Amino acid sequence: MNHFFELTLTTVAALLPIINPFSTAALFLGLTEGDLPSWRRQQAKMGVIYMVAILVVFLLAGTLIMSFFGISLPGVRIAGGILVGRVAIGMLYPRDEGFTDAAHKENRQRKDVSFFPLAMPSLAGPGAIAVIITLATLATTVTHYLAIILGVLIMGVITYLTLLASNFITRWLGVTGMQAMTKIMGFLIFCIAVQFVVNGVTDPDLLAKIKSGLGL
């Protein structure tokens, strides 16, 4: 039972800085500006449902994908760490703050923004998918998968409540506060990425294969 909750908390801790609902709140506010509160709640709800569905699908299909392509657990962890690290560097040293003006205009013309760009790529983007597939390598029983799914659901609740409070959050934090929050999240993500790589490099099976290949 302790391992169950530990894996759930690990999932939340790994996904929270990646999904970063606080920065998504600003995007959501811009996409739904001028819309009725009921429509904004519906868009937030559907966006979170899509996010949870995407992550759960990749969690359950992660093992099958690895088996089909012959990818080892250390390989997934190292590749996931590199990809997540790239996301973190982009948050720490941003080249382009969000979408371009043209993209914003196109998105504002969409009646439904819950799947794109809210769920993908903002909430369940490549970084979150890489994290969830990496977490799948830690699951060996049905209970482990349920623990990770519970963590994803908790993230869904946190994200939904954050989106509903997007107007207050962006007004309270301001531009400087949002940028500071993004950089803090970026640092945490980079730490997680490094840990993924360390776990992959120090995997006993990988070390055994390296020693065997070197004749040690």
First-last Cα distance: 40 Å
**Unreliable parts:** none
Mean pLDDT: 81
State the total count of DSSP E strands: 0
What structural category do the secondary elements indicate?
A: mainly alpha
**Element order: H for helix, E for strand:** HHHHHHHHHH
Cα shape = globular
Structural features:
216 residues, mainly alpha, 10 helices
Short account of what is shown:
Helix content is 84%, strand content 0%. The protein has helices at residues 2-19, 21-31, 37-69, 73-92, 101-109, 114-123, 126-136, 142-164, 166-201, 204-214.
List the helices and strands and how they pair.
Blueprint: H1 2-19, H2 21-31, H3 37-69, H4 73-92, H5 101-109, H6 114-123, H7 126-136, H8 142-164, H9 166-201, H10 204-214
Structure description:
With 216 residues, the chain is mainly α. The chain has helices at residues 2-19, 21-31, 37-69, 73-92, 101-109, 114-123, 126-136, 142-164, 166-201, 204-214. The protein starts with a helix and ends with a helix.
